[in-house]
Amino acid sequence: MVGAIFLILFLYLVNQGIFRFFKNRHKFFSVSLMNRLYFYHFIFWLTYYIYALNNPSDSKNYYYNTRRYTGEWLDLYGTSTTFLEFIAYPFTVSLDLPYVVVMVIFAWIGYLGFIFTYLFFRENIPVKIKLFKRWDFLFILMFLPNMHFWTSSLGKGSVIFLGIMMFVYALKVWKKRWFFLILGALIIYHVRPHVFMFMVVGTGLGFMSGNKRISMGQKAGAFLAMIVLLVLIQDKVLAVVNLGGSENVVSDFQDFTSTRAQGLSEDAGSGVDMASYPLPVKLFTFWFRPLFIDAPGVLGLIVSAENLLYLLITFQILKKDFISFIRKSPPLVKTSFVVFFMTSLAMTFVMSNLGIIMRQKSMVMYFLFFVIYYYMAEKKYKKIVKLRKLRLRKEQVAELNKVQVQQ
Known about the structure:
single chain, 18 helices, 2 strands, transmembrane helix, Oligosaccharide repeat unit polymerase
């Protein structure tokens, strides 16, 4: 544990260099906020570490599987679980670091994801929003407990969160941020190939429909490139659901989802019969459950409170003008909406365990929050512009009346 504490302090110093890098590029970057977020994140590292010592945990499996591995490091290179073991190998075997220290390293990887999350939101939405007319919306989003808990350990959650947020941060000016774009895409692909597919499709649809400066020829070329890419990675995507050699993908996928849902519903004593739910209830379950009455344990109660907050936040877009907003929204908003909905839709067919749902949805909820934040910010901006025009008109009328009086 002493080694872990020293590493946390060392990484704190490393962060200051990273902060200087981004501060030079983004004047709005708040070093004090990011430092507070760092120590807040490591509260959840400690919480997860204590939890893992007393409960079954994938983080322990990743650690001890690589410790027992006797082959060559490069032989571990692959996708999904293999890729996590490939990343963990230098720390667990080459450096022979204890479990608690490796947990710190991966918690820090998850924290880097929050830096890119902050940049993504703050750069694209400069208007500050008060949630429920009281709390800063962005501040709340940065400190959501469930998001930190599942990104503070040795596992896929921390790594793919960094990849996703790095990727979306780079999209705004991808020609200048090509390194982050490529690195983020590679991380997503290697951790969860099917999520990479959703990101590619969502980005393609979002930018082709939201950017009017792109000609039809360019859109057709981009669409063709997207199809070619998906064909190239189809084996990896299908392998995730054990359909790599399938001759009837639709039928076999139905069989897989049925079996997978049944297995997950029986796991950990927190199963829900998702297979029998209509689609809207499936989506609601994925996004907002557990909700107190079906919370699995103490952790479930904490998550239930956060899910209630998610629900209250989502109420902000239940307005008549939201559909027109999505239709006219810029590419990043469309991309976020498509990725969020596609990923959620896919997850509902195989998720039937509330414990796993709590972990998996941390990948996609920030996309929904980005859409909601942008929607609220746009409405506030339009109101500000309207008030400014009204004030200017009043000043012009007052000036005109003053001139007429003088005459």
